[in-house]
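Example record

One chain of 140 residues, shown exactly as stored in the release files.
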Amino acid sequence: MLAQIRALGSTFGAAYPSSGYAYIPQISAASKAYQGTTASIDLSGARPAMGAVLAVSPVAQLTDLSGVNDGSNLYLGFPLYLLPSASGVAVSGAGTASITFSVHPTLFLGERLYFQWAVFDSLAPAGYTLSDALLVRIGK
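Predicted structure tokens for this chain:
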């Protein structure tokens, strides 16, 4: 019964922090993705005044980006899309950012999307930090 599908927002995986664990970016959903509403994907704990991009994919897949198992894990498979674009968004002075999107009022019920933030961090060993990941299911 498609009418019984509820919206879901659940985190998984682990963040890839900055050097010395000074900043540990975390992903969250301030609002769930119900059909016909606006949903929000939020970032907290990032190094302030940096740039960030939110990646989204219909597929979850673990990929070790470093190749040396240091925790630099991408939890999204392909196809992979960047929001709002490859230019990204600014992280606030409090280490937060947010992207909102409209959920179609009649389509995508039960669809799952996977999200993960990447923060450009010049002081991090790899030049970036990664949040944990978020599974979002479109509900009614």
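Notes: The chain has one domain: 2-137.
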